[in-house]
Each structure stands twice: as structure tokens, then as C-alpha cells.
Write a structure and sequence with these properties.
Layout (H helix, E strand, L loop, with lengths): L5 E7 L3 E10 L2 E11 L14 H17 L8 E5 L1 H5 L3 H12 L3 E3 L2 H14 L7 E7 L4 E7 L2 E8 L3 H8 L7 H15 L13 E5 L1 H12 L6 E3 H14 L18 H14 L4 E5 L3 H11 L7 H12 L4 H18 L5 H12 L12 H11 L7 H13 L14 H16 L12 E5 L2 E5 L4 H4 L1 H13 L6 E5 L2
Parallel strand pairs: 1-4, 4-5, 6-9, 9-11, 13-14
Antiparallel strand pairs: 1-2, 2-3, 6-7, 7-8, 10-11, 12-13
């Protein structure tokens, strides 16, 4: 990453979509541009949890405007993340496919814990260096994230399905503020968040920070009314609730510091924030400058180098958690990557790194059962929360794990992706070559690709020296029948 490189993060939240563009300079990211649009997708989920056509169109229109600003950006310099509304939406693939095409960059739906991790990174990067133990709270439109961390490391992350948009529509449906509505909303929020007390109790943190959304809006209103700037207190929350009860409805609410787009969701956001203050015994909370989008920008930096890529340590954690034979997994990964380097015709460091992760995890399903372990492994990767990974990245690793043995055609439409096909053939050959669970003789082995045809050639005498390996490689050609690809074992 060179000084002057532009990076961009797109945050598709339940209430607003945001675009943050920053310039990398001497290890830090300086803001160049910030755009925000109130889209209210969180209000666009119908009773069946499908996004309405109107909600999808509002999102697409916003992404089209963002896309114009991102035209010249390289794919690996942009990260677009979607949160709770698109985690919930049953028809999210419809929105994501067209939205990614409009934006010109893939949109990732991140898990709740991954959202929380990115939020903490964004908050921590914009705070002074300190050894203080931090509690970070982020109340979004349909979810609330809680994080415990120190310096740049998040020690505990959690996401709860409670937020300003969801609580406003549920407990203040007509925008009417009453004492009973606030009591009911706070009790309901505490019921959802109750389990957080086991981890986020007051003796586990020194300073509480609130990130973006609701906390930022409340902080702005309190500061405009003469309360300490950048600080939210219990007394301030009590005062703000009194003001809302006095005007009685969101339509009549006019307060200095309160932006127009926040009026309709301030009731729900305030009730959730009061519930958190009460539950976690918080007396005051500092308003943080960083948020999810800054965390996504710094995560792009970390992904540039294997040694700083959090995903590599996450893979190692999964290997230990599921008792993978680490020596064999590393052997398969080294073999697969060697083949991949031979056949890849472009800059493929990122694809090679992902192939290595798939190879390291190809036996992760054995902890469940050795029978059909490749299917178990794919299921694990599709349903685990893995720090640093987007949902689609885990699914991609799962496809490779699922496809590393058996017939290839079971992957169906995914085989249209030439990068996936090359990764898969390298992984399958590596597994075959390492069948005896020892380092294979790679001298004279060469993998090449011509169009949709892969060919593996060997030096003279290799097949006679390794008859079982040769048999497995010849069998490999039949595994690719009825796929868009051909594999030839040209063994001597």
C-alpha cells in the first residue's frame, strides 16, 4: 500500500447508507470525502421479512450515486458491508446482486460479531493510544453491538437484534411519546440485552464509548442544550426523555442539534440507550468519532499483507478448534499453492491465500464424522462466525472444501468462475498427491491451463515410482465430466 492510495468503505445500514473515502498516508487514513443518505431500509421489511420493491429501489438509487464517485477505484481498495436489515431480509440476494452491479463492487453481508469487530476497529483507530479497558456501544437501526476491547484488540463482541428503527416502529408506531411507551420499550430492550450482563458487567471495563447513530444524535442534542460536549450522562438522558414527553409526538419535535432524519427514530433509540445505561450500570458515555466505516477502511490495510491479515489467524483458530491435523493441512496447502502459482497467469496473491486457507481447512469436518466429512466441513464454514471474513468469503471456502473430493459437478453454477475452478483443481490434485500423508515428490510435476483445459504433466518414470498417486490423478479426469472444464493427466 503506497502513500496517497485512496480507499473507500460503503456502510449499508438499516437507517442510512454511508460512503467514506480516505487517503492512506504514513500508516494512517485521512478522510477525503464523506457522503451519507437516509435510506430507511430497516422500515422496508414486510411481515414476511422481505424488502419491499420501494425499499430496494431507494437503496439502489443511493448506490448509483455512490458508484459515480467510486468509478476509478480498484476492487481491493473498496469494501462495501451490509448489516442487520440485509441479514434479516429473505430476498436479500435480489438486492445484493443488482446492488453490487450498480455499485461496481461486491457488497458483503457481515455477521453481527464481524460488524461489532469492525466497529471496534473504527472506534479504536480514532482514539488516543491507551491501555484503558473499553466498552463500545453502537445502536444501529435494527441491531446493537457491544464490544469489550483494549488498544486495537476486541476481546468480546456481540450483536443483539434491537435498534432505533425497529424499536421506534414497534413501540412508537405513530410517533407518539408517552411514559408507558418508554417504559415498555426499555423493558423489552433489557429483555433482549439481559444476557450481555454476564460478559459486559461494570468491572470488565474502564471507559464506555458510544459509536455513531443514536449515541451521536443524542450527544449532539445534549451539547446544543448546554450539557458537556461529547458526553452522554444519565441526567442528560432523563432530560431528553422529558423533552420528548413534553412535545408528545415526533412530528412536533424541534430541537437544536437534532437532524431531520433522526426525528422519527429518536424515541426508539433513546429507549434502547437508556436500557443499556441501566442494565450495564453506566453513568456516562463518551461519544466516539470512529465507526463501522472507518473499521472497514483499516481492515483493507490489514488484508494487504498475510502477516497482518486477521483471516489467517482466524483460520488457525478454526484448525485448533476442530482438531485438524495441522501438519497434513499445511502440507496440502503448500502443494496446492505451488501448483496454483504454476498455472495462474495474473497477479493472484489474494486468490492463492484463499486457496491456502481452504487447504488448511479441508478436513475441518472430520471432527463431526469422517464419513462425508467434506460436506460437514462446508456446513461448518457456512454457519460459523469467523473474524475478518465476510459471509460470501466463508461460503467460497466452503465450496472448495465441499468440492475437494467426489464429483465436481455437484458445485453446479459456481464452476462458471474460472478462479474457483483453478483453485479447486489445485486443491484436488494436492489432496491426491498427499494421500499417504507425507510430502509428495513434486520434481518435474507441472500444471498448465489452456482455455477450459487443465493438464498435469510429470517427468519420465514418475508414474511408475508412485503408482497409487498416478492412479488417483488419472481418476481425476472423470471427476470433471459434465462440467465446463476438462482435466488431463499426462503422466509418464
Amino acid at each position: 500500500m503506497h502513500d496517497g492510495t485512496l480507499l473507500a468503505a460503503v456502510d449499508l445500514g438499516s437507517n442510512s447508507f454511508r460512503l467514506e473515502i480516505g487517503r492512506f498516508e504514513h500508516g494512517h487514513i485521512q478522510r477525503v470525502e464523506y457522503l451519507k443518505e437516509t435510506v430507511r431500509q430497516g422500515n422496508g421489511l414486510d411481515e414476511d421479512r422481505n424488502l419491499t420493491p420501494e425499499a430496494m429501489q431507494r437503496g439502489w438509487d443511493c448506490l448509483a450515486r455512490f458508484a459515480e464517485r467510486l468509478t476509478a477505484f480498484e476492487p481491493h481498495h473498496v469494501r462495501a458491508v451490509a448489516t442487520q436489515t440485509l441479514r434479516e431480509a429473505r430476498n436479500r440476494e435480489v438486492f445484493l446482486q443488482r446492488g453490487s452491479d450498480i455499485l461496481g463492487h461486491r457488497i458483503e453481508v457481515v455477521s453481527g460479531p464481524e460488524e461489532a469487530r469492525l466497529i471496534y476497529q473504527g472506534v479504536a483507530r480514532l482514539l488516543p493510544q491507551s491501555d484503558e479497558r473499553r466498552l463500545v456501544v453502537d445502536i444501529g437501526g435494527r441491531s446493537t453491538e457491544l464490544i469489550l476491547g483494549q488498544q486495537f484488540s476486541a476481546r468480546a463482541v456481540a450483536s443483539y437484534r434491537v435498534g432505533s428503527v425497529a424499536w421506534s416502529s414497534r413501540y412508537f408506531p405513530e410517533g407518539i411519546f408517552t411514559p408507558q411507551a418508554f417504559r415498555t420499550a426499555e423493558i423489552a430492550a433489557q429483555a433482549v440485552l439481559d444476557e450481555a450482563l454476564n460478559v459486559y458487567r461494570p468491572d470488565t471495563w474502564d471507559v464506555a464509548y458510544g459509536s455513531s447513530g443514536t449515541v451521536g444524535a443524542v450527544g449532539d442534542v445534549l451539547a446544543a442544550a448546554g450539557h458537556p460536549s461529547g458526553l452522554v450522562t444519565r441526567q442528560g438522558l432523563d432530560w431528553l426523555q422529558e423533552q420528548l414527553l413534553r412535545v408528545r409526538s415526533a412530528d412536533r419535535l424541534r430541537m437544536e442539534g437534532l437532524k431531520e432524519e433522526r426525528r422519527s427514530v429518536i424515541g426508539g433509540g433513546l429507549s434502547v440507550l437508556r436500557a443499556i445505561f441501566e442494565l450495564l450500570q453506566i453513568d456516562q458515555m463518551q461519544v466516539a468519532q470512529g465507526a463501522l466505516r472507518q473499521g472497514a477502511l483499516y481492515d483493507l490495510l490489514d488484508r494487504e499483507l498475510p502477516e497482518t491479515d486477521l483471516r489467517s489467524s482466524t483460520v488457525r483458530g478454526l484448525m485448533h478448534r476442530f482438531a485438524v491435523d495441522i501438519e497434513h493441512a499445511e502440507r496440502v496447502a503448500k502443494t496446492a499453492c505451488s501448483l496454483f502459482t504454476q498455472a495462474c497467469r495474473k497477479n493472484c496473491e489474494r486468490a492463492e491465500r484463499k486457496l491456502a486457507w481452504a487447504a488448511q481447512l479441508h478436513e475441518v469436518g472430520c471432527r463431526i464424522s469422517h464419513s462425508e466429512y467434506h460436506h460437514h466441513g462446508a456446513y461448518i464454514l457456512d454457519h460459523t462466525d469467523a473474524a475478518g471474513f465476510a459471509v460470501w468469503e466463508l461460503h467460497r471456502l466452503g465450496l472448495l472444501v465441499k468440492g475437494h473430493r467426489g464429483k465436481v459437478r455437484k458445485l453446479e453454477a459456481d464452476l462458471d468462475d474460472p478462479d474457483l475452478a483453478l483453485q479447486l483443481v489445485c486443491l484436488r490434485i494436492a489432496v491426491a498427491l498427499c494421500h499417504a500423508r507425507r510430502t509428495p515428490d513434486m520434481q518435474g510435476l507441472s500444471l498448465s491451463q489452456q482455455g477450459n483445459r487443465f493438464a498435469l504433466s510429470t517427468r519420465p518414470g514418475w508414474s511408475a515410482a508412485y503408482p497409487q498417486s498416478a492412479h488417483l490423478l488419472r481418476e481425476e479426469s472423470t471427476a470433471w465430466i459434465k462440467t465446463p472444464w476438462e482435466f488431463a493427466a499426462e503422466l509418464q
